[in-house]
Every structure is written in C-alpha cells, then in structure tokens.
Design goal:
Residues 51-264 form the Polyphosphate kinase-2-related domain. InterPro entries: P-loop_NTPase, PPK2-rel_1, PPK2-related. With 288 residues, the protein is an alpha/beta fold. It has helices spanning 3-9, 12-16, 41-47, 52-67, 86-94, 112-115, 121-125, 146-149, 155-174, 188-200, 211-217, 219-233, 248-265, 277-285; strands at 73-80, 102-106, 133-137, 177-185, 240-244. Helix content is 48%, strand content 11%. Strands 2-3-1-4-5 form a 5-stranded parallel beta sheet, with helices on both faces. The structure holds adenosine monophosphate and magnesium ion (MG).
C-alpha cells in the first residue's frame, strides 16, 4: 500500500515547475483546488509521513557533509499571500527534520537598519551555512511583490530587481546552494474563508492583521505581481514551483516532495572519516 501512489508523486516536479520562457505559466488559469499527481487531499495527508524517513536520512547526510569539508546547502523559499499557508509549511515540513540542521528565517517589514541597505542585504545574512537547509518564510521576492503593489519604491527600482534577483540566485547556485522556490496559491474564496475563520476564533485572532484586508483589496495587483515573478525569475538553475494551496494537506505534501527531490539530486553519501577506523577500534578495545 502506498507504493503506487508514491510512484505517481514522482511526476510532481514536472507538473508544478514553471518553465523559463516568459508566459510559460498562466497564474489566472490555474485551478488552486487541484491536487496534481495525487488522488485527493486525504491521500496527500496519508502520503506525507511516508516521505519522512528518507527526508531525515538525506538531511543528516547533508549535515554531516557540512561538518566535514562540504560546501553545499539547500534553500527553500516559501512565498504566498496572507493565509496561503506559509507558516503551516514551515511547521509541518521543517518539523519532519532535525532542527539542528535547519535555518528558518522569516522576513517582515524591513527594520530601520535593514532599510539602510540594499534589499538583498538581510537576505545574504540569512543564507544557510554549508550542510544546512534554509527555509525562508517570505523572502527577497517581497521586494518585487509588496514593494511593487504598494509602491514602496519607484517603478524603475523594483523593475531592476528582477534581474538583480536572477543574478543573485545564479551566484548562490554556483556556490553550492540548491534553491527550491515554492509559491503557494490559494483561491480568492479560500482566502476569504481563512481570514473569516481567523476573526471567528479566539485562538486565531493573533494571526489576523487589519492590513490583510487591504492586501485582499489589491488581489488583482498581487496576482499580476506574482505573474511577473514567475515570468521573469523562473530560471533553469532555480525554477519556481507553483503549488495549488486550497488544500493544506496537498501543499504540504507537494513541498515535502520537492524538497526531497532536491536532496536526492545531491547524491549525498557519508563523509569519509579523517581517522583510521581500524586503529580507533583497536584503541577503543584496549579501554574495555
Ligand atoms: P507576516 O508574514 O504575516 O508576518 O507579515 C509580514 C509582513 O511583512 C507582510 O505584510 C509583508 O508584506 C511584509 N513585508 C515582508 N517583506 C517586506 C518588504 N521587503 N518590504 C515591505 N514589506 C514587507
Ligand atoms: Mg500575515
């Protein structure tokens, strides 16, 4: 049981990846309640735990590599509008791994200090060290999303950032970081339901921010800004994956699988010790 369903899941990379040519993906036309490569949301919930052992094993190999002379790392960039489920991804997907090997960072409104620097300054400081899996809850993409929609900077400033981001990510990849970029996309109706639920439940009020409604009022502008991100920054070295996110179980499974694929592609072994194992066995035996 599960084997056949897991085999089908192997197609998810191709199903969700955005091609490099502009217009390769039509955000407006996508079904955000779909569950590509999975029968339904219930099946997604059933499958995700089955990936846990391999994910943890590969993470440990990466960590071990980083502790020796490795330079490789992985960076999961999680984007999405309010209520898209970014926090749940961080909690559930990162929760399947050893916290020691993770570097989780979230990016909010820039602080006065951050504002004194280039938009990539705070991002560079938050990058995962060798052997680590970095998780970004929001990222440098906010600087071409909220910054563009809310006109926080002049058009020529955000306009230039797409190319800056591409150059930045190319350098990162060349230096040994595997980048996995996921855009969680909920439908307008589902966003409404989730915001309404926040206002209805005492345990969810803390998640609500009055500005969420302002963001919702600019739904179309945000969709256009996301479309531009997909058109201009889905490079072969670091493609975007657009995740239908009306089902939280599906989104969490999809991101887990994409992260697992990234780790698999690294072909991780175990580091060779810098000591002689037989000599150490003999030394240890004498201490019995
Ligand atoms: P949350 O993720 O709910 O904690 O909210 C973080 C807030 O920070 C969101 O409203 C983002 O739009 C905002 N934010 C994140 N990055 C930037 C940025 N570079 N410039 C302006 N606002 C940002
Ligand atoms: Mg929020």
């Amino acid at each position: 049981m599960g084997r056949k369903k897991l085999a089908r899941l192997d197609g998810i990379d191709d199903a969700l990846r955005v091609g490099p040519e502009p217009g390769a993906f039509d955000l407006a036309g996508m079904d955000r309640a779909a569950t590509p490569c999975v029968k339904d949301a219930a099946t997604a919930a059933e499958l995700r735990p089955l990936l846990g052992d391999e994910l943890a094993d590969l993470q440990e190999r990466l960590y071990a590599e980083g502790r020796t002379d490795g330079t490789r790392s992985v960076l999961l960039v999680v984007q999405g509008l309010d209520t898209a489920g970014k926090g749940g991804i961080v909690r559930h997907v990162a929760g399947m791994m050893d916290p020691q090997g993770l570097a989780i960072r979230s990016f909010g409104v820039p602080t006065p200090e951050e504002r004194e620097h280039d938009f990539l300054w705070r991002i560079r400081r938050a990058l995962p060290a060798p052997g680590r899996i970095g998780v970004f809850d929001r990222s440098h993409y906010e600087d071409v999303l909220v910054a563009r929609v809310k006109e926080l900077v002049a058009p020529e400033v955000w306009e230039a950032r797409y190319d800056e981001i591409v150059a930045f990510e190319r350098d990162l990849v060349a230096a040994g970081t595997t980048i996995v970029k996921v855009a969680l996309m909920v439908s307008r109706d589902e966003q409404y339901k989730r915001l309404a639920a926040r206002l209805d439940r005492p345990d969810k009020l803390w998640k609500y921010n009055p500005s969420d409604v302002d963001t919702r009022l600019q739904w179309d502008e945000y969709q256009a800004a996301y479309q531009a991100v997909l058109d201009r920054t889905s490079i072969p070295e670091a493609p975007w994956y657009v995740i239908p996110a009306d089902s939280k179980d599906y989104a969490r499974l999809a991101v887990t699988k994409l992260l697992l694929d990234a780790l698999r592609s690294l072909d991780l072994g175990w580091p060779t010790p810098d000591y002689d194992v037989d000599v150490e066995k003999a030394r240890l035996a004498k201490t019995r």
